Amino acid sequence: MSASPVTVRAVLVTPLLLATAASANGAFETYGADARSRGLAHADVALPSIAAAHTNPGALGLADSELALAVSYTLDLPALEIALAAARAVDDPLAPARPPVVSALNLAATQPVDLVGEDRLFVGAAAYFPTSVLVRARAFDPARPFFAMYDSATEHYDVSVGAGLRLVEWLHLGAGLRLAAGQRGDVQLAVDPVRGRLVQQSMDTFQYPTSAPVAGIVVGPLGVDGVARVSVGAVWREPIAFDVALPATLVIEGADVDAVLDVLVLANYEPRSLTAGAALWAARGLLVDVEAQWAMWSAAPPPMLVTRVDLGGEGLEALGLDATLDAPAPGQDRVRSPGYLDTVVWRLGVEWRVLEPLALRAGYQYRPTPVPDQTSGTNIVDANAHVIALGAGVTMRLPHVFKQPISAEIGYQAQVLEERTATKTNPQDEIGHWAARGVVHALALGWTYRF
Prior knowledge:
mainly beta; Porin; 14-stranded antiparallel beta barrel
C-alpha cells in the first residue's frame, strides 16, 4: 500500500469589523462620530451634522450649501478591572484580558451636488482611522474573561458614505453604506520529516470590499425661528462585519494520516439597529435632543475562538481511530451561542449657545448590556453603562489665516459601568466567581471648516 501524505489544514475566519469580540459596536456607535457627537452622548439622529453620513444620512439634506470638512483626534482610555475570586498571574493564559488604549483620527465632510437643483442633493462621508493599526482582532479562549464592548472593539477603521435629498424644506431622505473589508487567502506548506526541511511554502491572499446599507429620514425643523422648532429623525442600519479567512495547508510527506484543523474567529460584529429621536430648538439658543436605539444583539455570533480538529487517513482508518480522535466530541463543544439579548439604548443631548460663537454641550446615555449572566463556561464581561458627556465648541475668525470662520470642538465622555458579578453554578469552574467594574474615558479634539 502506497503512503499518502499527512494533510493539516488550518482555516482561520476572522470577521474584523469593529476588531475583537462579536459584541463589538465600533468607535462611532460606542462614542459618537465626531467631537460634537461625543459631547452630546451621541444623541444626534435628528440633528444637522457634518458626520451625518454615519449619524443619519437623512440629515445630509440639512447640510450647508458649501463644502464642509471636520478633522478630530480621539483618545479612549479604558480603566476597567475584573477581580477573580482566585487570582491568576498576569501571564496566565486565562488571566483577564485588558482593553487597549486607542487613539484615532476622525474625518467627516459634506458637499452639495447640484444635479437635481440647487441645494437639493448632498453627499457626505465619515471615517475613523486608529493611529496604530487599521484593524485589530483578538479572540479568546471561551473561559478567559474579557470586556466584550471595549477589548479591541473600537480599534479598527470605520467608514460611512451617504447621500441625502431635500425633498421640501421640512422633509429629508437619505441612504448610504457602511464600508468594511474582508480577506481571503491560502497558505501551503509541505514538510519532509526524513530530511528535516520544508519542500514547499507559498501564500496567496487578497482583500475585498464589503458593505451594509443604511437609510434615514428627518422631518423638520418645523416651527417658528427664535421661538421653538422641532425635528424628528430615524435611521436603520443593517449588520456588518469584517471577514478574514486564511486557510493553511500542511502536508507531511510519507504518512498515512490526514489531520484537519479548523480555527474560526467571529469578531467585530455590529448588529442590526433602529434609532429614532426628536430635537427641540427653544428660545435663548437652547437645543435638546432625545432618542432611543434598538439593537438586535440576539443575532450575534459567539465572540470567542472556535476550533475543530478532524483526524483521518488510511492509517487511522485501519486502526478504527479515524473518528474517535476528533475534537470536540459530540456534546463537548466549549463554544455556544452567547445568548445575547436585544437592547434599547436611551440618549439625551443638550446644547446651549451662550453667545453666537460659543456653544456648551452635555449629554447622558444609558446603555443596557446585551450580555446575560455568566454562570458557567464562558466569561463574557459587560455591564449596564451610564455615559456622562461634556463638550464645547467655539467659532473663530482668523482673517489672516482662513478666509472663512473656523470652529474648534472638544468632547469628553465617561462611560461608567455598573459593578457586575458572576456567581458560578459549578464549584469546579475553571475561572470561578468574579466581579467587574470601571470607567472608560473618551476624549475628542477637532476643528470644522466651511469653504
